[in-house]
Amino acid sequence: MNQKQLKLLLQMVAERKISIDDAVLKFKKAPFEDLFFARPDHHRALRQGIPEVIYGAGKTSGQIIKITQSILENGENNILITRLDSENARIITQTLPLKYFETAKIGIIGDIPSPNGKGKILIATGGTTDIPAAEEAAVTAEFFGNEVQRLYDVGVAGIHRLFASLDDIMSANVIIAVAGMEGALASVIGGIANCPVIALPTSIGYGASFGGIAALLSMLNSCASGVGVVNIDNGFGAGFLASKINHLGGS
Amino acid sequence: MNQKQLKLLLQMVAERKISIDDAVLKFKKAPFEDLFFARPDHHRALRQGIPEVIYGAGKTSGQIIKITQSILENGENNILITRLDSENARIITQTLPLKYFETAKIGIIGDIPSPNGKGKILIATGGTTDIPAAEEAAVTAEFFGNEVQRLYDVGVAGIHRLFASLDDIMSANVIIAVAGMEGALASVIGGIANCPVIALPTSIGYGASFGGIAALLSMLNSCASGVGVVNIDNGFGAGFLASKINHLGGS
Amino acid sequence: MNQKQLKLLLQMVAERKISIDDAVLKFKKAPFEDLFFARPDHHRALRQGIPEVIYGAGKTSGQIIKITQSILENGENNILITRLDSENARIITQTLPLKYFETAKIGIIGDIPSPNGKGKILIATGGTTDIPAAEEAAVTAEFFGNEVQRLYDVGVAGIHRLFASLDDIMSANVIIAVAGMEGALASVIGGIANCPVIALPTSIGYGASFGGIAALLSMLNSCASGVGVVNIDNGFGAGFLASKINHLGGS
Amino acid sequence: MNQKQLKLLLQMVAERKISIDDAVLKFKKAPFEDLFFARPDHHRALRQGIPEVIYGAGKTSGQIIKITQSILENGENNILITRLDSENARIITQTLPLKYFETAKIGIIGDIPSPNGKGKILIATGGTTDIPAAEEAAVTAEFFGNEVQRLYDVGVAGIHRLFASLDDIMSANVIIAVAGMEGALASVIGGIANCPVIALPTSIGYGASFGGIAALLSMLNSCASGVGVVNIDNGFGAGFLASKINHLGGS
Amino acid sequence: MNQKQLKLLLQMVAERKISIDDAVLKFKKAPFEDLFFARPDHHRALRQGIPEVIYGAGKTSGQIIKITQSILENGENNILITRLDSENARIITQTLPLKYFETAKIGIIGDIPSPNGKGKILIATGGTTDIPAAEEAAVTAEFFGNEVQRLYDVGVAGIHRLFASLDDIMSANVIIAVAGMEGALASVIGGIANCPVIALPTSIGYGASFGGIAALLSMLNSCASGVGVVNIDNGFGAGFLASKINHLGGS
Amino acid sequence: MNQKQLKLLLQMVAERKISIDDAVLKFKKAPFEDLFFARPDHHRALRQGIPEVIYGAGKTSGQIIKITQSILENGENNILITRLDSENARIITQTLPLKYFETAKIGIIGDIPSPNGKGKILIATGGTTDIPAAEEAAVTAEFFGNEVQRLYDVGVAGIHRLFASLDDIMSANVIIAVAGMEGALASVIGGIANCPVIALPTSIGYGASFGGIAALLSMLNSCASGVGVVNIDNGFGAGFLASKINHLGGS
Amino acid sequence: MNQKQLKLLLQMVAERKISIDDAVLKFKKAPFEDLFFARPDHHRALRQGIPEVIYGAGKTSGQIIKITQSILENGENNILITRLDSENARIITQTLPLKYFETAKIGIIGDIPSPNGKGKILIATGGTTDIPAAEEAAVTAEFFGNEVQRLYDVGVAGIHRLFASLDDIMSANVIIAVAGMEGALASVIGGIANCPVIALPTSIGYGASFGGIAALLSMLNSCASGVGVVNIDNGFGAGFLASKINHLGGS
Amino acid sequence: MNQKQLKLLLQMVAERKISIDDAVLKFKKAPFEDLFFARPDHHRALRQGIPEVIYGAGKTSGQIIKITQSILENGENNILITRLDSENARIITQTLPLKYFETAKIGIIGDIPSPNGKGKILIATGGTTDIPAAEEAAVTAEFFGNEVQRLYDVGVAGIHRLFASLDDIMSANVIIAVAGMEGALASVIGGIANCPVIALPTSIGYGASFGGIAALLSMLNSCASGVGVVNIDNGFGAGFLASKINHLGGS
Fold first, then answer.
1. Farthest CA pair distance, chain C
2. DSSP string, G190-219
3. What is the least distance, in Å, from the CA of H19 to any CA of chain G?
4. Which of the other chains make 3 or more beta carbon contacts under 8 angstroms with chain G?
5. Distance of alpha carbon H204 from alpha carbon B240, whole angstroms
6. For residue F121, which phi and psi values (nearest 5 degrees)?
7. β-pair partners for F177
8. How far apart (Å, rounded) are the C-alpha atoms in residues B163 and B154?
């Protein structure tokens, strides 16, 4: 309930157009409705139709279809479904106009918008096996209106490949450094780049990589400043945070 | 060696104003100077005098004075010294014009500039014991030219205090959520705010908080999207990353 | 052997109705029978038929049927079988009058009694994926005679949904807060509610959630007081403890 | 603002005794005051003066005195200060009427009330070294109006001592089982008692006890049902939760 | 090479019945042959045919048959095969006279000897799910010539069942306490029994039992003295160590 | 109450020499006295005066003196005090006839008895820094009536020193293998010796030894069979278990 | 760009055979081309055709064939494919001349060269289950031109077998000690051998071996000096490092 | 007893210059002396006087002096004492001709020899705080006869400094990469250098660096091949292994 709505309601009370009991009822839920509408997501939702996100892991195709249809009925036209395996995607496609990104394991209803962020999001990976997590980040970022540049397989074992793309690193607005194993890529990029770097550890590796813990710890302890870390394999989180940063102050 | 300098040198070669052997000598160290000068920090350094940072932990006051003087001699006037204990600060002050921020354990040579970022950085803590880490972030952010708003002791145990500042949360450009113990503050703020949130876990707590691990894991697993995490008690890193984000595309 | 029985036996000895050797034999096992009968469970069992619990995980349908029949033969009519997968449930149903709760993975022989606790047990989950653990707690609590109110998918990422149910939180006698990922729900509810809160961490999450450890640590470190934690995914334990609390001093 | 106050205010608006603008002003801060007053703690506070709790660890005696005086000025007369070392206690006593419980490391301003809970809280420890954590729980429970019975040094290494107190275990309303090392006490008591058991792991032990982790894990995995666990050495949390349970439905 | 053999060899040198070079050759490998023959296992092997042990996990039925036949050819008639799954056992039985113990996952070639230890080995488990590990210990102990008494499902959740067997506990020569979850059984038995107790943690449990770590830590930290711990699920090791203890000084 | 006493009491009841009410009173506490006296320790205690053990860590000299005097008054003349630092030992000696073993950090009241075990306990250490833990085991074993042979600094880095004592290894009745760092000594000795081996990991080491965890894990995973492990630095436990094994069936 | 190339280019500038803008372009990428060509791998590549390595895990046979063909087209004739399962190997063989080493899970295109290292690489394993990791190391080392001697199943549980090969240990130039479980083999060999020892922990074991962590920690804490450790199961890394050491100063 | 000595002894037996009983006596201890002398260290010792190493941590100055004097009496003139604090060094210097290296915490008796290895050992650190561990490695390597080149503070946060020393990296025979925090230096150097790289993790860092674990894991998971890792802060081990590699095949 904003100030204008409040004044209106009090006016109605003063003019006895609404009973005091009904007004009390309206106030009772107001704090939480306030909270609800205060959320910019929803302001944006009202203005422009905000994309919805469904976490697909552990859901059946039937459940996903049901949730999706309920969202569509509420007037949201753009839906991102993460962690969607190809079999579920195949089934959903029979019912809904789903675009499926196999490597990213993402399904999309609606369109990927034209980029409207402030700059370019660069996504770099240490190896080819890190690409699925990187693609989850990339498609997420594109879905939220960002220009994405992919720079894959530039890990520190062959560091000359990374330096061959120095211009791209220097001209990015946000960088997502994706790496498993020892995760050194985030530190190296963090030591070169001047823009915010999001470190995305992946579960790639074996033995003492402990499913991504080695990369995660490495990234948290990066000697390069200006690095923020997301959860292991959390490509969506990295892409979404990058998009938030890239749209700051954006029209 | 930037492009202009390179062109100049080649011009001199073309015009035979410099011998080929002397030019070779000049190039010999160039690749790394190139790399060096390619770093935007240094572009900025050339334009406006970039602040230097010294990590004070484990250094004697004598060592810090020596490093500081060497930086000053190189023409840098603004220096930030982190993890500086009060005793070392007291000694350094006898030799150098140090401003000391006791709670933040930060010493500064030179001036804190007027804010020139895009918006406001909000720094919220769960409890009063998280304030030292928060202040390290706050003074760092101020030192790098940001307006900082402090919102301390608004942890989820008394969540109404957090909601009393909903306007501040909604109007921030970047938020740093500082919390120890279970670190839930980052998730709650991340669930409300629309701007990028940097989660700063602190080592506050006991027993199974394991010196900040509980808060760190909590923040990495935040169900709220758009949260990037820094190392435990890494106030400097949080402040520096927030500043980077807040200056993106800044004039 | 209670005091009355002891007196009776000594009387028989005094009256030489029983030989000393036979009396010795009766005493020999008495200490442990004492211990045995001293257990209130069994006092209750004598009065009202106490429900038995079978942990179904790792047992074949054959083994479960055999144990169940042995219990039924001992006169117990109400049996709760936890961690019972649907295939085993299907087979058991062919032999025994089993009611199966698919989501809770619980099978029940006998009836769910009318609630006879002191108040209402509220069970809240952070997300929809936490529902199986929540249902294990819910059906357990109902089986032990409690009124259960479900409040699902009210996690801190959309905290307004939680606050929309503030009345339910305030009127509960015991609350079970069920959450995976960062487990912040327990702290938020613990910070609002005035009744005892049982925190039930779930293994939902990925990466650095470590199969529920992040949520577990978060809950153990809750800055909100009055929170007791059970093992990861231990819905039965949470429901049983809630029931114990809800029946304290109950008639 | 409670419902009664709200009605009153609307009445005044309806009767034009207050201008709409002034009413708006009054509402502006209302949502959070609402939330604030909705918290039962504060309802209780209004009725009977609720005790305040200060976490003393890491605070100077000066800071504690200042916080305490501010609370006293707000009309709260009973204050519990936890983790208060004897030196700080000594200094505070010179300024404030502090009662100090050395073993519990608790200081109290005001009086310990007569017990007004439903039953007795039994606090059992495995060894004598667990007594400090147990006393923190005991004094906390007493401060919040509970009758506390202490049963110390009854660990499973000499299990006959525990059974010698079977009557006390059977007649308790809530039990706090305090143990370090392998923490088996909680399971043994949980296997005997019929009331809710709060397991309080302590950091007592060496080697692979890992500062209480062994006891904590042991308690979380207790094969006895109806056990809720609090953080390592969190005597306050155990005592507070026990008090909450013991006052449920209490007059 | 024992002293007698050495004298013999030197005699032959003195009597020039062997060349010095051949004698040198004989000495060259002597230290390790010494070591080899010094091993009592082999002394025993010479005297009585020592049982051989094959670790079956990760071996194909073909590999096991081949190893077994090679041992049989060397004159060993008694072979114990651990971690042998039922499918492999079925195949091996077609070729070799294998006795298979399904629960213990042990196969035996030859006979289980009459007990020849000093006393009885008691094997107690906390629950029925711990029985496989217990049976691996039991069959191993029987195979090495021990009388084994089984006492299953006497965990601390129903501690009266354990005390009902106090006589068995008191009369055992060695006890193996087998438990998963919180592993408290070892401490309780260790607190009662006067003989050596071997604690065998099992991987039974879920959540924070971490595949047996909780039980392992619990047992290592047992407040009861005289407890030695073996690896998680290492029934063979427990049975073998118990047998060693039970045969000390045995004829 | 043993069987003889029970018969006597029943006889008195049968002969009406005692009233039934008085008999009831006598029985009331009997179950636990039974349990108490059923413990062989106490049977032994009645026969021969059993040594008592005090864990000295974290106790003041005053507390230790008080406990000791209380034990002495109960007629126990032999007391072992572990983890006793030299300063406390110095103070206690002024009041009580304490013998202090500096390296073992053990104090003894009374006499070390002549060895009455079945054989010799060999205690081997990997390095000289493991000696304190070894001495705690050695003095404990001696105090409980065992012949102890020390074999120090025979770690696998200089494995020839270990083999130089092959005879001692072969003739021991029980061996305690004491090692920090990688703890390989237990495996090597376990691979040679035929008697039970108790592995005692020490906290000696640095970096990834994690205060003894590396040695502990190494010992638990020993490829040599017949090894039981005690807690890190638990010399007392190792010595006590070795003594139990060495006295099995002893006269 | 080497000095000669630089002089040539400057000459061309001086002689105006190339425009300054074109020269600038050539310089722009020079630093990284420099870095690229400075890598000895590539110098060697130019001279003799360096073997390429493909990490086969998680790649389809189709992907591997494509990468392999692309390498072959670039003129590299020798390719090592690690972590290649037998099914993928079978498919690839239909297209490419692959030699498959089943135990090592390695496929090779091209020939294994004659050994050209300085000495012999000895590879020792603790058990037969460690052989796959050992073979990965062995085939890798052979592929890079080393003579490899295999010494399998010489673990410390039967240490006499290891000593029977003392000559081989003494004459090796590099030793790879491969062991799971407690990993003591590395320490024992490190204590005997005088050459560099590479410790290769394997994931063999169960319970508290934690998938190789016990062996890894054991090896890192080896009391024997001169031991370098690689990741768990990283046979390729061990073989490659051994080859590097064995080729030092090699022609 | 070497082969020559053995032949001599047998000759004497054959020639009856020694009785068989006396020869038996001589042989009795021979097996282990054999083993002893088979160790190449000791062959070297016979030829050239091998340096001895004392681990100084946890030893008093008195103990160190005593051990040192005993070694000197045995004819060894060169002794390296690691982990020697400055106070102990000061005291020892009063008795023995000790040279003390403060940063390395190493004391040396005797002379540092002229380098006699095959090449140069390069020691690189990520930061200035890693220098103590690096110096322990450097002085150790120098003490064992190696030319050492120091390259400090070239961490990846300022990677241009590392590349400025590309020539040194390319010309080293062995490289020790010393780094704390995220330890990325080892991967970057491993990706550039062609010689063996020893990774030495340090305990430098805070928060989630966990005393060097982050760096250790990072190094074990290095995507660069040919990297062997030593324990955290184990400068001696790194220096000693580097020396072994650098002396392979050395004259």
1. 77
2. HHH--S-EEEEE-----GGGGGGHHHHHHH
3. 30
4. A, B, E, F, H
5. 21
6. -100, 120
7. F124, F199
8. 9
Give me F92's structure tokens.
């206690």
CA F58 from chain center: how many Å? 19
- Coil/strand/helix, residue D22: helix
User: Among H2, H36, E29, F187, which residue's Cα sits nearest to residue G164?
Assistant: E29
Note the residue count of chain B.
251
pLDDT score of E251: 37
Sign of CA dihedral H51, H56, H62, H63: negative
List, for residues C74-110, the tens digit of each pLDDT value.
777 889 999 999 999 999 999 999 999 999 999 999 9
Whole-angstrom distance, CA of residue H188 vs CA of residue H200: 14
Are B160 and D36 a contacting pair at CB < 8 A?
yes
Q: Is E223 exposed, middle or buried (0-12, 13-18, 19+ CB in 10 A)?
A: buried
Amino acid letter, residue H128:
T
Q: How many angstroms separate the Cα of C159 from the Cα of each of C205, C216, D31?
A: 19, 20, 15
In angstroms, the separation between the Cα of residue E190 and the nearest Cα of chain C is 19
F85: its two tokens: 């630092």
Beta bridge partners of A120: A147
Rounded distance between C-alpha atoms, residue G82 and residue H106, angstroms: 43
Q: Contact partners of D by the rule of 3+ C-beta pairs under 8 A?
A: A, B, C, E, F
CA distance G179 to chain A (A): 14
- How much is the pTM? 0.85
* Site from A50, A118, A225 to mutate, B interface, most B CB atoms within 10 angstroms: A225
Contact A179, A129 (CB under 8 A): no
Which tokens hold the place of F181? 């760092």
What are the residues whose beta carbons fall under 8 Å from the beta carbon of B10, sequence distance 6 or more? Answer: G13, G20, G23, G24
Cα–Cα distances in angstroms (integers) from residue B36 to residues A98, B41, G26, G28, H19, in the given order: 47, 9, 19, 14, 81
**Cα distances (Å, whole numbers) of residue E166 to C28, E122, E171, E194:** 11, 12, 9, 12
What pLDDT, in 10s, does the model give residues C183-231? 899 999 998 888 999 999 999 888 888 899 999 999 999 877 789 999 9
d(CA F142, CA F134): 12
Cα(C235)–Cα(C178) distance, rounded to whole angstroms? 9
> How far is residue H196's CA from residue F118's CA, in Å, rounded to a whole number?
55
What pLDDT, in 10s, does the model give residues D134-190? 999 999 999 999 999 999 988 887 777 787 788 888 889 999 999 999 889 999 999
Nearest CB to E195; choose among F163, F195, F248: F248
How many whole angstroms separate alpha carbon D97 and alpha carbon C126?
Answer: 45
Pairing of strands G106-109, G98-101: antiparallel
Give the helix ranges, DSSP H, for chain E: 3-14, 20-28, 30-38, 40-48, 61-73, 86-93, 131-143, 159-163, 166-171, 184-192, 213-220, 235-246
Pick from C208, C150, C204: nearest CA to C177: C150
From the list B107, B103, B62, B115, the residue with the least C-alpha distance to B242 is B115
What is the side-by-side strand order in the sheet with D147-151? C147-151, C120-125, C174-179, C197-201, C227-229, D227-229, D197-201, D174-179, D120-125, D147-151
Residue G215 CB partners (closer than 8 Å, separation 6+): F221, G179, G180, G181, G182, G183, G201, G202, G204, G205, G209, G232
Q: Which residues in E lie closer than 8 A to residue D182 (C-beta atoms)?
A: 183-184, 187, 217-223
Least Cα separation, residue D46 to chain A (angstroms): 21
Number of cross-chain residue pairs from E and H with Cβ atoms under 8 Å apart:
38
Chain E residues within 8 angstroms (CB to CB) of chain H = 3, 6-7, 10-11, 13-14, 16, 20, 23-24, 27-28, 30-31, 34-35
**Contacts of residue A36 in chain C, CB cutoff 8 Å?**
160
| Identity of the residue numbered G97 | P
